[in-house]
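[09:14] KT: can someone run the structure on this one? pasting the chain below
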Amino acid sequence: MISAVKQPILARIVAEAGDLDSLSDDDVLRLITAEVSRQMQGRRLSLKERKSLIEMLFRTMRGLDVLQPLVDDPEITEIMVNGYDTVFIERAGKLSTAPLSFDDKEHLIQVITRFFGRANRLINEQKPIADLRLADGSRVHAVLPPAAPNGPVLCIRRFTGIQPTMSALIESGALTEEAAEFLQTLVQNKMNIFISGGTGTGKTTLLNVLSTFIPANERIITIEDAMELQLPTIRNLVRLEARIAGPDGRGELSLSDLIRSSLRLRPDRIIVGEVRGREAYDMLQAMQTGHPGSMSTGHGNSAEGMLERLSLFLLTASQLPWEACRRLIASSLHFLIHLSRQSDGTRVIEQITEITDYVERSFALRVHFQRQHDGVLRRVS
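[09:31] RB: done, structure tokens below
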């Protein structure tokens, strides 16, 4: 019964109130409550059912509809909608299905377009892919048909707000105390560090932890697609965030734009949240021009694989020959930390590698720590 009256009530509220985006949450809630009371008058509806209907309508108009309870659950770190009737969640590093669904594909499309529309982000058949950062730092990514032929896809990566610590990583088995002390020394000695790993391996978490070892008197510039880094120990901090082009195709701010701008802001170190393309060239150039101790992350399946990807990024972004690209990487980066995710969901450091040189058309690498067959990260040289 509740689902049957949902659409008529929504349509009535929209018709009477007009521009709901200009109203506060309290005003919208009052409108919903009044309309439910009017339309449900004379019907058998318990107080619990009436409250459930009001909450459902509010989630539809101001939240993410049936997904809102998942968004509000602090233990859920990721929500993955593979279609209107298939929803997965990640809790404590493990995936499971969520016992909920949307009415149909059109219902899911309406929720996505309405949610992005309130944030002034366009998503439709002509522009079927869009990103959004929520006020709490969580990231939302959506794909509509025709880019998603089997139906709309939505992924929400929650921002927990929990400040990670090195002691917590040691306790979880991500690394040992010896490796932690080694990494602390690298940061304090201003080594340029790159963190690689697959999706959800904890790259940003480790970057946050390493940043706590930066001396408090240094000036730090952070550059990100979506703000995730937390640097509470840094007093002289400037945060820059990229921006995609608006519906008119203007207003884009790329990571490369921000990196070049940061050089004029007198940074001691530059921290780039994640590099995925041409901005790698600007980042490495910055590391070479008086900003030691800078750090960044990127997607890679291994330390060697990440170096190859960075080489391709440089080749695309510059007119440099292949060998020159690789020499630039070797002269800019000092250490590469590779992360992985275990079968039980645990995120661990697999390897800590020093890039010592580039000789005879290959990177000269020295592995300092390697995760062994018994699952422990140990010093190997």
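[09:33] KT: thanks! The longest helix spans residues 2-17.
[09:34] RB: yep, looked fine to me
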